[in-house]
Amino acid sequence: MKVIIALVIFSAIILFHELGHFLLAKKNGIRVNEFCLGLGPTIVGITKGETKYSIKLLPFGGACMMEGEDEESSAEGSFNSKSVWARMSVVAAGPIFNFILAFVLALILIGCIGFDLPKLTEVTKGYPAAEAGLTAGDTILELNGKRIHFSREVSFYMYFHSDQELDITYERDGKKHETHLIPKYNEEESRYMFGFSYNNLRERGNVLQTLKYSVFELKYWISTTIESLKYLITGVVGINDLSGPVGIVKSIGDTYDASKSVGMFTVVMSMINMAIMLSANLGVMNLLPLPALDGGRLVFLIIEAVRRKRVNPDREGMVHFVGLMLLMALMVFVMFNDIRKLF
How high is the pLDDT of residue 318? Predict the structure, then answer.
């Protein structure tokens, strides 16, 4: 059951990504030869007009195969026969549709269960927060200049910066206050502490608040993905901390097991939350300026727009091919690492 749920979530997110490419291709008069869900041999397919719609054997991945996208073609409606701006819109549509999907799912989630405000629930005596005058009920607005909307953002920030001094902006009775905290080392817990805690209880708001916090939800997952990449590049986290499809399936399964005892509503909300995270993550990752990804293709299109001359197709194709091989090697490593963690 857990694997089926994970595959449904993966498939829906990837299908929506490819739908973005498909719709913009059609709008710009680009011929789509095949629109498929999955990879490998075709299980079932139907041709309607110029496009074959199919389901492949391997239940992950998907594609929107456009005429002349990866090879030279003089056929009418080929990808490269269109303007550079039209091609840029088609390439960018996939990640943008992932963000749209994440936002729509965030509307459903926050509309149903609300949002987790970063309100302090307890301030411990003898620690910097209490000495600076913070009290239970204060709402955190900024941490070292970073705008805060959810208690999760506090947790994420503190995980990587718990030993650093903290400029904190908070709200009490509708008024803003600022203070500076220096962490205090706790010998018993072997960690630095500021002496405040908060809960993750959610509050429901009106329609405007639901819309606003849905935007913040999308922003949270985008910025979290970017921050995680930055920590990976700078060595704060290691490559062994990366998760691929196997690790994500396990995470979805663990979330399902933890929530099913509470009830079906909690299961659905938990799965929607996972889908928001994965969709936003896929959007960000695809926009990275790496060969074979949408971001890498956009780089070549931007260069073409600036030069007003297309980059040599053979050289571009070789760059994307090498990039794809490297990405596949990384995926194999990550998958092996995920499997190793299971045992």
Answer: 86
